[in-house]
Structure formats: C-alpha cells, structure tokens
Amino acid sequence: MNEATRVRTPVLLLCLLPGVGYLTVFFGVPLVRVLVGSFSSNKPGESFPTLDTWATLFATPVYLDGLWFSIWLGLAPTVLSLLVSLPLSALMLANERSRKLFGALYRVPLVVPGIVAGFLVLVILDRGGMAARLAAPLGLTLPRLVRDEWGLGAIIASSWKSIPFMTLIISGAMASINKEVLSAARTLGAGRVTIFWRVQMPLAKPGITAAVLLSFIGSLGSFVIPSLLGPAYPLPLSVSMYREGFQNGNWPMVYAMGTLLSVVAIGILLVYYAIVGSTGRSQPLSKRDS
Amino acid sequence: MKALVAASLAALLSTAAFAAEPVGSDKFNTDPGFDLATLTADNFYDVIVPLAKKEGTVTFYDFSDSFGPLFNEHLIPEFEAKYGLKVEYVRGEGDASAQQLVAARNAGAKSPADAYFVSSGKLGLLRDAGTIANVPLNTLLPNGKALDPKIATVSGGIEHGGSYVPFHRNQTSIVYDSGAFPADSVPTDLDALLAWAKANPGKFIVTSPGGGGSGSGFLQSIAFAKVTDPECRAAFSNYKISKDEATAFAASSCMNPVWDYYKELLPAVEVTNGNSDTLNLIANGGGAIGTAWEDMAYDFSGRGLLPPTVRQQLLVEGQVGGGDGVFLPVNGKAPAGGLLFIDFLVSKDVQLEKLQRNGSRSARTDLDPAATFTSDQVARLIPNDQFATRARESMPAPLNNALSAYFVANLLRK
Fold this sequence. Notes:
The complex is a heterodimer of chains A (about 290) and B (about 425). Chain A has helices at about 5-35, 50-60, 60-95, 95-105, 115-125, 130-135, 150-175, 180-185, 190-205, 205-220, 225-230, 235-245, 250-290. By secondary structure, chain A is mainly alpha-helical. Chain A has one domain (about 70-280): MetI-like (MetI-like fold, Orthogonal Bundle), CATH 1.10.3720.10. In chain A, helix 10 (about 205-220) runs antiparallel to helix 13 (about 250-290). Chain A is flat and about 75 Å long. The two termini of chain A are about 40 Å apart. With about 425 residues, chain B is an alpha/beta fold. Chain B has two domains: about 1-170 and about 325-370, D-Maltodextrin-Binding Protein, domain 2; about 170-325 and about 380-410, D-Maltodextrin-Binding Protein, domain 2, CATH 3.40.190. Chain B has 20 helices and twelve strands. Chain B has helices spanning about 1-20, 45-55, 70-85, 95-105, 125-130, 135-140, 150-155, 190-200, 215-225, 230-235, 245-250, 255-265, 275-285, 295-300, 335-345, 350-360, 370, 375-380, 385-390, 395-410; strands at about 55-60, 85-90, 115-120, 155, 160, 165-175, 205, 270, 290-295, 310-315, 320-325, 390-395. In chain B, the strands form two sheets. In chain B, strands 1, 2, 3, 6, 7, 8, 9, 10, 11 and 12 form a ten-stranded mixed β-sheet that branches. In chain B, strands 4-5 form a two-stranded antiparallel sheet. Chain B is globular. At the A-B interface, helix 3 and helix 12 of A face helix 4, strand 8, helix 13 and helix 20 of B.
C-alpha cells in the first residue's frame, strides 16, 4: 500500500460515514430488529429464537391469501398505470401543446394524499355513490367496484395515485433520449408507433423499470387504500399487520409479515437490477450505433 | 359498655367491608402515594379531593370517535368548575394510545394518563400488560354503588372485578330505512331477515366480525339464538374459557347451526369492513338494512349523516350489547385526580347528560331515559320495550375472538 492510498482510505471512509451511517441507523438497525423480532413468539414461555411465528404465518391460509392479495394489489395498479403512463409520456413529448396540457393535469393526483384518493374513489364509485346516482336515471347499474373480491376500487385508487408519478419518471427518461436518434429513425421510414416501440421504449427502459419498481413497492405495502376500498376478505398483509399489532398485540407476527413483504420487495429489486444490468451492458452498443 | 363495644365493632366491620381490596391479588399493583386500603366510598371525597387539588392537573385519555365534543365542551369544563382542577384532555386513536400505555409500563415509566377511557375490546390486552390498577372502583367510588353490579365487574366478556368502570353502554342493533319499506314488513327475527336478504340481494349490509363490533355482535346474537344444546350454551357464559378451548368450540358441531345460517345468508348480503362503512352504505341508499351499534346510529342520525327515516330495532331472539369504560392506570402522575374524575364520569348528572347528547346508555340503575329524552331522540333509539327485553350480555372475549376468526377463515374465505 503506497502513501497516497494510506491517506486516501481514511478520508474516503470519513466521506462515506454520513451516508453509510444514515443507512445503518435508519434502515439497517430497524430492519435487523424486525427480522430478529420475527423469530420470537407471542406465546408466553416460548424460547428465543423460534420458528413458531413463521410456521404459523405459512400454515394459516388467511395470511397466505393475504400475501397473494398484497402482491396482486401491488402488481395490478402497476400494470394499469404503466399502460396509461407509457403512451401519455410519449404523447407529452410529441408536441409542445400536449406537453403543456398533460403537464398541468397529470400532476394533480401527485399532490393528493393516498387517503384522499381512497375517499374520492369511495364517494364516487361505492354503491349509492355519485357514479351510481348519475347512472341510475339512465337505467344503468354499475358493477361492484368497492369491497369487491378483486379489489378493483383499491386498484383504481392506487393507479390514480401512481400514474402521475410513473409519467413523471418515464417522460423524464424519454425526454433524455437524443432527438437526433428519433429524427434518424423517422428519416429511415419509421412511423410514430415503430419509433415508440423500437426506439423510445428500449432507450427509456431504465426509467421505466425504476418507475415500475417504485410504484409496485408503494402499492405492495399500501394500507389506507385497501382498508377503505378493499374486500372484507382477503385482507392484504399490510392490513393484517395493523390488526395483529394493535388489536391482538402479536408483534412477532407483525415482524414476520413485515419481513415477508420486504423479501417480496427485495426480490422485485433484484429483478430490476437484472433488467437494468442487462440494459446497461447493451448501452455502449446503442451509443456506438447512434 | 357492651353497647359501645358493639357499636365500635360494627363501625370497624362496616369500614372493613367497604375498604378497597385488591382485585385478583393480595396487594395493589399501583402506588398512588396514599393508602388505598383505608380508602372507602364514605371517606372518598374527604381524602381524595384535597389530594387531587394538590396534584392540580388530571390527564385524561379518550379513545372514542364520538365523545370528543361531549368531553371538550361539557363534561371537562363542568368537572374543572366543580373541583377547581385542570384536565389535560388527550384524544387519540385507541390502538396507538393503548400501545403508548403498554410501552410506558414496560419501560417502568410513569403512565402518561391518570384516567383512561378505552374500548372493552382493548381491556384484555391492557390488563394482561399490567397497565390497569387492580382497584375495585365499583365499591370504592361513591358513584360506583349505583352501577349494575354485573356490568360493573364484567365487560366485553372479561371479569375485571370492578377495575374498569362502565362509563358508556352500547347495544348492537339492526338499523333499517323505514322509507325503503313499510314498517309491518320489517323482518323482526333471524329467519325473516334471512328470507328478506335472499329476496333483496345486496340490500342487507353485514359488518365483518373481523372488522367491527356490530358484526361480531350479530354473530354472537345468531349463536345465542341458534345454539340450543345446554352443554354447548354453557360456553357462552364460561368466563374462564381459554383461547384454545374457544378455538376448539368455534370449530365444534355446537356451532354448526350458526355457520349453516351464515352459509345461506352470505351470498345475499354485502359484507363491510367496519361499523361506519355499513352505515354509510345505508345513508347512500346502497343498503336498506344493516348491522349497527345503537349509539353510533343514534349519533349519525342526529348529525344528519343518516336519513331521518332510519330506525333501529332488536331482533326477537335478542341481540348482544357491551360497553366501554374508564380505568385508573398503574402509576399515573395524578392518581387522586384520576379517581375523582372517574367518579365524576359515572355520576348521575353526567350519565344523564351523556345519554341525552350521545344516546349512550348507562350502567346506572337509577336513570329513566324515557323521562329525559325528546320524542325525536326516542325515535332514533331502539324502542325501550325491546331494549328492556331483548338486550343480552356479550360472550366471553376469547370466545368472541375465536368465533370471529373462524368466521373469517372459513366463511368469508370461500
């Protein structure tokens, strides 16, 4: 180790300390606490560590249904939001007028808290709500969208919240694409749809995957919206966590459910890195091509 | 001389009979800084009022959604004016404030509250966490003797020996919109209700037993009506029943008639996640009949959140009720003030005022609601004759929890 390296290492560690320290204290320690807590038991006299709580979690159909429902409530709004956000982002780039129009409108849900979004959907789409009253004179009966077994109301509210967020990220990613690339594609005879699918989408992929990831994780752990709009059964794990903790005082189960939800989110994160990694590897090639 | 000795003995015995004795233990689990063992209902004000005045401030925690204005605008100012004490009023979400109390107890810190109004659903959790002073308030407080002895010692199916004072009584009911169908066609028993629900799909709104007390109350009411075997029914009043025994009972053949009833009912009803969710659907016209709490429906009607045509009834088989109460937390900062405030809350004037303003029933046996209520208020309540004959006490809490859990896991889970 030469003199320069000897001097650089402590300085480097010092520079990293705020960031690493912050992550350790505010992220690492609570996460470890949750993980450790999941190996304790709610039953008096039970020794530590024990797999008792985890065994109960995986042996209870109500909780397993809750896990799948959580994943569904994370996945469905993400897909729905993506379907809206992708063309919206592309349209916003198409011309100045649409950018200004959508730019003003799509930000509105961004500043509305999730609970407000939940209540909006409840007031509008619940049985006897505003939509049902408007449809009634026309002889129309709306399908059940609140408390339905597929969680449609919750999916609509989560999507309503996610779309501007996703659009913000994806449109940013698309805006960063060199316009000469798009012009080149156009001069080579590519239509608007072809350019969207074969040029904009691949080049904006890192932004799209980041938006998908953040939206999924946000919806996966959502508590307020499924509480207000979801069915009586199944309950997503986030809602079960609240009930286990505050109503039953079963904190080991809360920790186990929290760990499980985090594992699901981390799994998605790994998939994200795999996608971004492969995109990153292909990046020099596309740059060379352009 | 003999007469003097006899009189002295009688006085001593009388004092001993009324002196506070610890509940479920040979010693008190709290140290208020004065001798609880010599405190009686007779010397209560002489001992407690000066001590409370020295403490100066009472911190009162309230979990409820609907009593805020009553406490803030009426009861607390009245207490402060009467005793010259200051009340620090803390309104909080019940689950979170219960955990705050437990956390303080676990940390060995002073309790953040001197008097604590909490749902009976939290009673078991708080008692097991050792946060409730084991003081028999029903015999210690001067106003305690007016309380129904059974209600004063058992709440939400939990025997607490008087350490939890029933401030508020509530009753599950069936609400219906009298504007939606003629009064004589309102189903009045469980079988008629089932038939009506089948004929009007989606119009009977049932609160999930896992999501609200009116739902678990309805489940209990069906169990009381449909389980007829005396051996099975013994479980309904077994306050020593363990969690495991209750879980086994829920899955036993004893409960088959109840689950069979639900299996017929559920396809025809809408199940909601909470009591107010049910009432909101009735208010929107999404439903015409629903399970409810009497005081909540009374409050919603009074505030115009339910149509004026909404009425309440008890099914002829009977429906269960319960209540919420106040307790003295272990190691509060102002225990004398806490005791004085709890006594005030169950005084006759306060209970009458609460009854009139919130439709909240009382555990006092010396109140006559009919003489106090206006005709509009009476119309918003369960008819008095039904309340007198059809109100039932809740089952033991472990059994209620087990039945609700079984319902969610086996009936709601298709």
